[in-house]
Design goal:
There is one protein chain. By secondary structure, the protein is an alpha+beta fold. Among the domains are: 197 residues, Immunoglobulin-like (Sandwich), CATH 2.60.40.1730; 105 residues, Orthogonal Bundle (Neutral Protease, domain 2), CATH 1.10.390.10; 134 residues, Neutral Protease, domain 2 (Orthogonal Bundle); 117 residues. Strands 5-4-7-2-1-10-13-12 form an eight-stranded mixed beta sheet. It has a five-stranded mixed beta sheet with strand order 15-16-17-19-18, covered by helices on one side. Helix 6 packs parallel to helix 16, helix 7 packs across helix 9 and helix 9 packs across helix 10. The model has no long low-confidence stretch (mean pLDDT 96). Its cofactor is Zn(2+). GO terms for molecular function: alanyl aminopeptidase activity. Belongs to the peptidase M1 family. Its EC number is 3.4.11.2. It comes from Nocardioides cavernae.
């Protein structure tokens, strides 16, 4: 593949001013992927130019076998810098290119995978942000939308999916041709083709033809989950269509679960998922809730991103922040997952606070000079912080006005491109509020304010402190006033507060024993209660009456731990108190994960076993409740330390997933028996069970095991990107620092290579396999310096520097203890 130059914003503006793209006709030949690595594509692009005689280029990262522009031959071979020059444009132009791509196993643009259980081949495409150019020559920028006509040649036993669902299918010479109807005008990053011998399930709900696809070896699991997926999909389409006053306009909505894919992608009408979301064993509540969150997030993109698309990646938040907000908002309103905001507070929002406290923090909206830089913005600031800030905007203008603005926005700009100003103008018109200061404060600044409550002389003051010396942001929030008694914590009154400036007097209301700042979690700020409230929060937080309130108790403790103001033991104390009384299934598993992390990575070495044992005892007590059993046993499998705890785990780990988790824990404790791994491999119907075997073996304090894992991950790239973080968790184990130090150095040396297979691989590798432990005393500094060198992907650079900050905080906490 040619070394490519990233498209700059200036180049995109120049090309958009010159061109209007009418349509792409894509003919993909997948028959060479049945047993080989070759994709052939014939691309026809019809476009007009504002200036006749001008020159432009198409983005192309495949080898050109033949190309003509208006009948004139163009250069063939590998386009220099990934750009095929188009000279002497006419007013109306037709470009025809026959190209071939043989790099089809790296997960960039197109990926060919082989199911290890039956040898079946599956092919998927994914083009965000600029990987469409890997598969077909195109003007690969979001504001040059066009109609797509897609046809596919594939083996006769394969099913093919694309954006428009139904296709005309003909058979000849042992292959099938699938010809799909034209799409509406789409950006180049949302067309899709998926193919393979999928199993297909369909259901008609509320007038929509819904489809689910997965590889054959997962058919029983898909059957088990299908009704829930169909139900969620139907409810989501109905809810969004009603709330946005614009129904999803296609009669068909497909979701394709594919192997070796990272996350999910919002391809219009045909969402592609990693098939890790087809759970191999009966899922926990948290598993189901996370899948619902992803389903509703990708569905929201049909409106935020597909129908209405940002003009340039500066406004990526118009896609991702809105989809992240919408999925939680819709889940609470139209599904059984009514505690979704508490779940997001326990998980993604804590990641956002950590990202915003790191040296790599950035505004939600920022000027991005090129697409490579934009790729580094697919992070916890653009996603969960952006969602939290939108939740604050809803509180600021009111939900009715906010929705009225969205409806007008969609009606005005459907199938076009927009900027921040377009959306804000619609919300201002609907709400009657000037949002110019809000935009500057919340979207164009970085860092989280700290809100500290002070009680003095019978009065209460909320002190806002902003990072970097900037002015505090405007906050609209609630303070819950709670009375503490032997019967628990009782809400006396909820105070609505608007923070403007450094000191805000909190007037009125009962002066409860506990004043819970940011009750209901309406704003994005770190919170420091007054000393009396903090003591109650840490020791009696589990007595609060709401899931969000109880989660705030533990996440406040987590924030204190993260900033070096609380020890891991106090965090575990607080968590045991909260979780022993928790009633919301949404937060049991993620909050247990916080306790496991604190005991495993934040506790001083001398205290690790003791704190892990305390977490294990909590898990054993929770395992008695049927609804908590699975979450509790998963927590136990990460923390079991004593013989009694390990025996309890062995007795209750009956499903393959729990059995693998137990073996991974035994690997960490250097108690793994290889014959147990082989036996479970033989029994487990999961086609990807080999990854769990690798994790168990990798967790051992063994030089041979680490070398085998390193070879699989970094050299052979055999480990799929969607499970890299799981293997990384087993590789970089606390207490194995000396063993992995040499590999930490090898990771540093490999930084330039981590970005050579596109954004998804760079993202998953740099986050999932980051050295959480190991290295000499100055390793973090040298790693950060190496990440800044030329040739390192901006995605890799950003992630390494952010995770360096988290590692520094963990190491400081361990020393302080």
């Amino acid at each position: 593949m040619s070394e490519a130059r990233s498209l700059t914003q200036d180049e995109a503006r120049e090309r958009a001013a010159l061109l209007e793209v009418d349509r792409y006709d894509l003919e993909l030949d997948l028959t060479g992927l049945a047993e080989g690595d070759t994709l052939r594509v014939t691309t026809t692009i019809a476009f007009s130019a504002a200036t006749a005689g001008g020159t432009t280029f198409v983005d192309c990262l495949s080898d050109v076998e033949e190309a003509t522009l208006n009948g004139r031959a163009l250069a063939t071979g590998t386009p220099p810098l990934g750009r095929l020059e188009l000279p002497d444009l006419g007013p109306d132009n037709v470009l025809v290119v026959r190209s071939v791509q043989r790099r089809t196993d790296a997960g960039q643009g197109i990926h060919r995978s082989v199911d290890p259980s039956d040898g079946a081949v599956y092919v998927w495409t994914s083009f965000e942000p600029d990987d469409a150019r890997v598969v077909f020559p195109c003007f690969d920028q979001p504001d040059l939308k066009a109609v797509f006509g897609i046809s596919v040649h594939a083996p006769v036993d394969w099913l093919v999916t694309s954006n428009m669902g139904s296709a005309a299918v003909t058979t000849a010479d042992g292959t099938r041709r699938w010809t799909f109807t034209d799409t509406p005008r789409l950006s180049t990053y949302v067309p899709v083709v998926n193919a393979g011998p999928f199993v297909e399930l369909r259901s008609t709900r509320d007038g929509y033809d819904l489809g689910l696809y997965a590889r054959r070896s997962l058919a029983p699991m898909l059957d088990r989950d299908a009704e829930e997926l169909f139900d969620l999909t139907s409810k989501g389409l109905a809810f969004y269509g009603e709330q946005f006053a614009m129904a999803f306009p296609e009669p068909r909505y497909d979701q394709v679960f594919v192997p070796e894919f990272g996350g999910a992608m919002e391809n219009y009408g045909c969402v592609t998922w990693s098939d890790v979301f087809i759970f191999r064993d009966p899922p926990s509540y948290a598993d189901r809730e996370e899948r619902a969150l992803v389903l509703l997030h990708e569905m929201a993109h049909m409106w935020f991103g597909d129908m209405v698309t940002m003009r340039w990646w500066d406004d990526l938040w118009l896609n991702e922040s809105f989809a992240e907000w919408a999925c939680a908002w819709s889940a609470v309103r139209c599904t059984e997952f009514t505690d979704m905001w508490a779940q997001m507070l326990a998980t993604e929002k804590q990641d956002a606070y950590a990202a915003d406290a790191a040296p790599t923090t950035h505004p939600i909206r920022q000027e991005l000079v090129d697409v490579a830089t934009a790729a580094a913005s697919f992070d916890a600031i653009t996603y969960p912080k952006g969602a939290a800030v939108l939740k604050q905007l809803v509180a600021f203008v009111g939900e009715d006005s906010f929705l009225e603005g969205l409806r007008s926005y969609f009606a005005t700009y459907a199938w076009g491109n927009t900027t921040l100003d377009d959306l804000i103008a619609e919300i201002e018109s609907a709400s009657g509020r000037d949002l110019s200061d809000w935009v500057v404060s919340w979207l164009e600044t970085s860092g989280a304010d700290r809100l500290t409550l002070e009680r003095q002389d019978g009065g209460r003051v909320l002190v806002a402190t902003a990072p970097g010396g900037r002015a505090p942001l405007p906050h609209r929030l609630q303070i819950g006033s709670y009375a503490a008694s032997s019967e628990g914590l009782t809400l006396l009154e909820t105070l609505s507060v608007e923070v403007a400036g450094e000191r805000t007097q909190v007037d009125g209301g009962a002066d409860g024993d506990l004043l819970l700042v940011n009750d209901d979690d309406l704003t994005f700020a770190t919170v420091r209660p007054d000393p009396v409230s903090l003591e109650i929060l840490l020791t009696r937080g589990g007595e609060l009456p709401t899931a969000v309130g109880r989660t705030l108790a533990l996440t406040t403790a987590w924030s204190l731990l993260y900033d070096g103001e609380l020890g891991a033991e106090q965090l575990v104390d607080c968590g045991v108190g909260v979780l022993s009384r928790e009633t919301a299934d949404s937060v049991i598993e993620p909050l247990l994960g916080r306790l496991v992390d604190a005991a495993d990575h934040w506790a001083p070495t001398a205290a690790r076993d003791h704190l892990q044992s305390r977490v294990s005892d909590l898990c054993i007590s929770l395992a008695d409740a049927p609804g908590r059993r699975l979450a509790a046993l998963r927590g136990l499998a990460q923390s079991a330390t004593t013989p009694t705890q390990l025996e309890f785990l062995a007795a209750h780990a009956t499903e393959p997933d729990l059995r693998w988790r137990r073996l991974i824990r035994l690997g960490e404790l250097d108690q793994l028996v290889e014959s147990d791994v082989e036996s479970l491999l033989a029994e487990d119907p999961d086609p990807d069970a080999w990854v769990n075997a690798l994790r168990a073996r990798t967790a051992r304090p063994s030089a041979e095991a680490k070398e085998t894992a390193w070879q699989a991950v970094m050299i052979d790239r055999k480990v799929p990107q969607d499970v890299l973080f799981l293997v990384g968790r087993s590789f970089w184990r606390p207490g194995q620092d000396d063993l992995v130090t040499a590999y930490a150095e090898r990771f540093l040396q490999a930084l330039p290579e981590l970005g050579n297979a596109g954004m998804l691989w760079a993202l998953c590798m740099s986050r999932g396999f980051y050295p959480a432990v190991g290295g000499e005393d100055d390793f973090r500094d040298r790693l950060g310096t190496a990440a800044g060198q030329d040739g390192v992907s901006p995605v890799v650079r950003h992630n390494v520097r952010e995770l360096n900050d988290r590692r520094r905080r963990r190491e400081s906490a361990r020393r302080a203890g």
